[in-house]
């Protein structure tokens, strides 16, 4: 499978900011882990990160136009208010998308309990650190469609 992994705002600062929430592994280390795990399972992976909502939407549209088989997305804080990213995920008709979060968003501040993007996805995984990205891949591997 050809998989796109999209990371949203501030995820490039993982390992530097809020280590008690996000851990001490750097973003680069997490990306290396994702790449290794996906390729070990025989999949090609494109890893992307942006602090810009518009660029994330561009990535999602690229997934459609370049015939990706699935998307794993951590929209970061955009999770909680971006109807535009929600619509971009929905616009990728036929490309299953899994929302992933490093932390358990439901155990954090109340505003993080609501996801505007998850309803456009086939599911949401949170609280398992970088392993959540592997769980997202496993969900895509096992997804049977609607």
From TrEMBL:
Binding-site positions, substrate: 74, 80, 87, 102-103, 112
Site label Transition state stabilizer, positions: 17
UniProt GO BP: amino acid biosynthetic process; aromatic amino acid family biosynthetic process; chorismate biosynthetic process; quinate catabolic process
Source domain of life: Bacteria
Active site: 22, 101
Pathway info: Metabolic intermediate biosynthesis; chorismate biosynthesis; chorismate from D-erythrose 4-phosphate and phosphoenolpyruvate: step 3/7
Catalytic activity: 3-dehydroquinate = 3-dehydroshikimate + H2O
EC top class, as a word: lyase
Coiled coil: none
MF terms in GO: 3-dehydroquinate dehydratase activity
Protein keywords: Amino-acid biosynthesis, Aromatic amino acid biosynthesis, Lyase
Entry EC no(s): 4.2.1.10
Family (UniProt): Belongs to the type-II 3-dehydroquinase family.
Assembly and interaction partners: Homododecamer.
NCBIfam families documented for this protein: aroQ (TIGR01088), PRK05395.1-2 (NF003805), PRK05395.1-3 (NF003806), PRK05395.1-4 (NF003807)
General function of this protein: Catalyzes a trans-dehydration via an enolate intermediate.
Listed name of the protein: 3-dehydroquinate dehydratase
Encoding gene per record: aroQ
